[in-house]
Amino acid sequence: MSIEHRSGLLPYLFAIASEDTNKPAPLVLFLHGARDRGNDLNVLLKWGLPRFVNESSPLPYFFAAPQLPEGQTWVERESDVIAFLDELIASHPIDPSRIILSGFSLGTAGAWQITASHPSRFAGLVAVSGRVPKTLEPNQLAGLKEISIQIFQGGKDEKLPVEDTQQIVDTLRGLGGTVDFTVLPEGDHFIADEVYGDSKLQKWLISQSRRQASVLV
To answer: Largest Cα–Cα distance of the chain, in whole Å?
Structure first.
């Protein structure tokens, strides 16, 4: 799949959906982890979802992955991510009801924060090897009940206890949310290649809509 390097408010990788250009397609927006911050977009292509997209045949969704400068966080750049999203929707045939936000590690914290702050903007959330920011209020978590959520974690992740994630899963389900929690028993913190390369998740990414949530089967 042809992936482009683009500049803007944040530099970013971008790939055009394979579908008919006259028909709006989903968008998968990816927020990278701490070690991929900097000013070289090629770093993002080394693994995880960006590499999967880059090495795949054309996919049925638009893909975008902005890059943070060193020392910054996605939570700090929340308003810029939303402005970036608005710019993409305005300039490409993206279906605004079929936008998935995904993050890895530091990017997962940003994805939780941004989705909880703007729940009407997203159809799905994919959280990989990351925790929910402690700054999120209970009412913000309640706002996530309309969004289909996939959480992935390595059973041997020394940075993130499975019990902590399970507590969030239970809270969200108690609020009526649709949450799938997948633990990779032998996985450590760096499970992104295995997670994003899974065909079930790839199908899930294009099956979500703000009008109808579905589970991973």
So the answer is: 46
Determine contact, residues 25/17, Cβ cutoff 8 Å: yes
Q: Does domain 3-205 have CATH number 3.40.50.1820?
A: yes
| Helical ranges in 161-208 per DSSP H | 162-174, 192-196, 199-205
149 Cβ contact list (under 8 Å, min separation 6): 124, 125, 126, 127, 172, 177, 178, 179, 180
Asked if 192 and 127 count as a contact pair (C-beta separation under 8 A), the reply is: no
Name the residue type at position 133: P
Distance CA 93, CA 88 (A): 9
Low-confidence ranges of the chain (pLDDT < 70): 1, 20-21, 211-217
Residue 23: per-residue pLDDT: 87
Average pLDDT, the chain: 92
185 phi and psi angles, rounded to 5 deg: -55, -40
Q: Name the residue type at position 190.
A: F
pTM of the predicted protein model: 0.93
The predicted pLDDT at position 157 comes to: 92
CA–CA gap between residue 57 and residue 53 (Å, rounded)? 8
Q: In sequence order, what are the residues at sequence separation of 6 or more whose Cβ sits closer than 8 angstroms to the Cβ of residue 91? A: none
Give me the pLDDT at residue 215, please.
Answer: 47
State the pLDDT at residue 139: 85
Going from N- to C-terminal start, the domains of the chain cover 3-205
